[in-house]
Design brief:
The complex is a heterodimer of chains A (265) and B (69). By secondary structure, chain A is α/β, with parallel strands linked by helices. Chain A is built from eight helices and ten strands. Chain A is globular, with a radius of gyration of 20 Å. Chain B has one helix and five strands; from the N terminus they run ββαβββ. Classes of the chains: A alpha/beta (265), B mainly beta (69).
Amino acid sequence: MTTTVSAPAGHPLTIANHTFRSRLMVGTGKYADNATMVRAIEASGAEAVTVAVRRVDLDRSQEEAILHHLDPRQYFLLANTAGCYTAADAIRYARLAREAGFNEFIKLEVIGDEETLLPDVDGLLEASKALVSDGFQVLAYTNDDLVTALRLEDAGCAAVMPLASPIGSGLGLTNPYTIRTIKRRLSVPIIVDAGVGTASDACITMEQGVDGILMNTAIAQADNPETMGRAMGLAVESGRLAYLAGRMPRRQIAVPSSPAHGMLD
Amino acid sequence: MNEIHVTVNGRARHAPPGTSLLGLLEELELDPRTVVVELNRQIVRRPQLEDHTMRDGDEVELVHFVGGG
């Protein structure tokens, strides 16, 4: 038997001027092949898909161009500045991405450390300010640090994207407290980006009350990406519903679920 | 001068004088609708690709969207 979730899921996710049909956003990197990627993304139900800006490889066919595989009328293309280590580089990549002509959104990454891929928050703030004043809707990938998140909001970012754990690590949500604090203190949407490893990670992350999750490796590198895509879509929705429903309090002692009275003598 | 020397995506290349950026894309069999062009670090918008003639020493970057997270 299949059941559909009919409980109210609250308002949909809106960032700047765009309302998304899913709170799950997915990356398009690291798939074994493009057909697998397309099936996994479809199964996930995500609307926003991230893409990277790179040189055209002049020795190869256009097979690597993502637009040969994903219909931009069906998906919201969210370009990133992955691989950029300075604000100047990130700004350059963002402008190239916008010129492709799909939207003004940019998932802004300014990386500060090669091993951990943790953000350079100074560069991130600098690039955020420049891109906001240039008309971009900036979604800033950042640490799970409240003060940085507040500064990014002040800089005019359309959304702030704190990490659950490092990119591609699959370690899950390492600090629920900091994510909850960021969500509580900021007004712009909070999209947790990076670190989710499996469906329970996604569910627990959404239960913190955040507005959405962006993930790539957890789906792309699963043994079966299509099935994991569906699992992640369900987990994000499930976690959101659980958050809206409000969980029961934790107790240190048992409380019986069956009546204590009416027992036989 | 029978040809000009330019750099395209980091690689040396020569072209007949008067070659436009659109001409370069055609020669490379690239669809201008799927590629963004930067000439000497300045973006050249699609409608202007035909008007920009490459000069000796120009640096051209041709980028597009690929898979990423």
